[in-house]
């Protein structure tokens, strides 16, 4: 039972780390001489970064991605704290339903963010406000980590739903 508990905790912390990295790091869309994320665009040649502001076309889509990624990260951290509290508060045989619901909300938020970015990426990178051409790029590792975090939070949310407290 202790090994299972350690695995669940490590799995949850890994999910949170993936969410933090994918939300913060600057690699949602990358090219040979640039990288962009939901916060800024960086030119690798000049080492200059430019914040993505409301002057950009499709800024509302970027804000939606920002908000849902932040919410996802918050929900994941809160569900970990709720799990620790429920670990000591639940009676034997009860399920970790509240933890599961919060973790599945985290899963839903990261799925919404990655889906919006997937759908709107062409329009997002055609804006004339970029100092360099960013439309010729590819998805970066932060975008991939967001989808992996989706899978991890989904698995852990279902795992908490099935899990019962034992001695």
Task: Give a description of the structure.
It is a single chain. The protein has 167 residues and is α+β, with helices and mostly antiparallel strands. It has helices at residues 2-24, 59-89, 97-124, 141-162, and strands at residues 29-30, 34-36, 40-43, 48-51, 138-139. Helix 3 runs antiparallel to helix 4 (141-162). It is elongated, with a radius of gyration of 19 Å. The termini are close together.
How are the elements arranged and paired?
Blueprint: H1 2-24, E1 29-30, E2 34-36, E3 40-43, E4 48-51, H2 59-89, H3 97-124, E5 138-139, H4 141-162
Helix pairs in contact: 1-2, 1-4, 2-3, 3-4
Q: How many DSSP E strands?
A: 5
Low-pLDDT windows of residues: none
Instruction: List the helices and strands in order.
Output: HEEEEHHEH
Q: N- to C-terminal separation?
A: 8 Å
Beta fraction of the residues? Answer: 5-15%
**Number of H/I helices:** 4
Keywords:
167 residues, alpha+beta
